[in-house]
Amino acid sequence: MAKVSVIGAGSWGTALALVLHKNGNEVTIWSIMEEEIAMLREKGEHVDKLPGIKLAKEIALTTDLKEAVEGKDYLILAVPSVFTRSTAKSMAPYVTEGQVIVCVAKGIEEHTLMTLSDIVKQEIPLAEAAVMCGPSHAEEVGIGLPTTVVAGSYKKSIAEGVQDIFMNQVFRVYTSPDVLGMELGGALKNVIALAAGMADGLGYGDNTKAALITRGILEIGRLALKMGASYETLSGLTGIGDLIVTCESKHSRNRKAGMLIGQGYTMQQAMDEVKMVVEGVYSAKAAMGLAQKYDVDMPIIEEINQVLFEGKPAKEAVTELMLRDKRAEHSNLMWPAEA
After folding, report:
1. pLDDT mean over 258-276
2. All residues at 6 or more sequence positions from 130 whose CB lies less than 8 Å from its CB, including other chains
3. Distance from C-alpha of 81 to C-alpha of 105, rounded to nearest angstrom
4. pLDDT in tens, 288-305
5. What is the rounded CA–CA span in Å between residue 133 and residue 316?
């Protein structure tokens, strides 16, 4: 049994706390918001984000970050990606050498273009940083539907430790050393999901969605490989797997926000309507920054940025993607010599 704190009491943090408790770990949930912890105490569930899914009474609840961090074997960092750095800064005074911090949010920091695990390593150098991601909506994990994810770390023992505390008969965990590939896949698929949602909002069909998913993973893969990630990662659960579920699911906040934008909402109106953090909006500029830094062609990412931040109509963006210059699907495939 491990002592584990989940830092962040949103839908994903709460769902993971349920998994950890089911596996016999000693679990604490922390939130910066007193009203959120009060709700969990009084109602025994997250009525806003996971209604009807009850928390076990043995799960401790606190707003005291020192209490949540000190003496724990694992710290599951489940705050939205835009709060990763500020939360890590606040945690740092209480972290001791060797504590494992597992980043389970998905995003790239806009102004530094750093991954979340790199932020943790920068702010808390004493800690061991790990990540966990894959096709895993909190709404389904919370009710125990079979789900498969990947635990990543540059140290095999750390990844296997994360695997041990989370894995059970309905929550399967693989391990991987390709932390960079996992984090890029997890962050950038949210941007592609915005595009898929816009296509749905515009009333386009399955053909359009399939094209966006397929070309989207190609864009993510081009960038990830240029940055040093592995092809296998992008073809696995944290690449194409996570992209499919985020582009298709009714639970996907990125797809929902995209649908609203396709229907004519502004980016801000869509985010207000979703009432949850839409990670793809925050990762879109970072994705464009990485594309420019590594000189990688990412036309879907570019069009999404124009829709989100420059007021370009979603329908016009789709039209421009369709009318790009003619080209081969895969430039590295060679034609046989013609007679």
Report:
1. 89
2. 100, 101, 102, 103, 117, 151, 152, 153, 158, 159, 162, 179
3. 6
4. 999 999 999 999 999 999
5. 33
- pLDDT for residue 276: 77
- Cα separation of 26 and 242, whole Å? 29
DSSP 115-153: BHHHHHHHH-TTSEEEEEESS--HHHHHTT--EEEEEE-
Is 155 an annotated catalytic residue?
no
- 133-169 pLDDT, tens digit per residue, is 999 999 999 999 999 999 999 999 999 999 999 999 9
Paired tokens of 260? 């609203």
Q: What does the alpha-carbon distance between residue 100 and residue 17 come to, in Å, rounded to a whole number? A: 16
Q: How far is CA 186 from the centre of its chain?
A: 5
The DSSP letter of residue 105 is: S
The one catalytic residue among 189, 209, 256, 285: 189
Name the band, by pLDDT with cuts 50, 70 and 90, for residue 196: very high
For residue 108, what is the DSSP state? B
Query: Torsions phi, psi of 3, nearest 5?
Result: -95, 120
